[in-house]
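Sample pair:
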Amino acid sequence: MLYSEKVLDHFSNPRNVGEIEDADGVGEVGNAKCGDIMKMYIKVDNGVITDVKFKTFGCGAAVATSSMATELIKGKPIEEALKLTNKAVVEALDGLPAVKLHCSVLAEQAIKAALSDYYTRQGIDPLPIIGEIGDCEHCH
């Protein structure tokens, strides 16, 4: 299986690993059966994601997509983070093998789950903003 240099770099040196003790939003997605679980922590200040950390249990592609996804939303307004797609994550990594595309879907969903939690904590119903967060097809 061939991985791009960027995937290998983000797997070997993942950015933003860890957890945020006093996070404003925490999202966990994945499935223990398929082995990929992502947990995303965000700090929000004035509608901007000031910090983001992740913990991922899974394959190299799962770690790399989580790492890249956090890089893409850090310092960005929530509205922009909500628009992040798995396709954008894959493009930023210069591509992923087809069998690993589900990892990028999980990365997108982990961010959306953290944002959903943030809205819930603010007393705002996240459904109209974020919609349903399902499992990736790979996990069924």
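The two ends are 23 Å apart (CA to CA).
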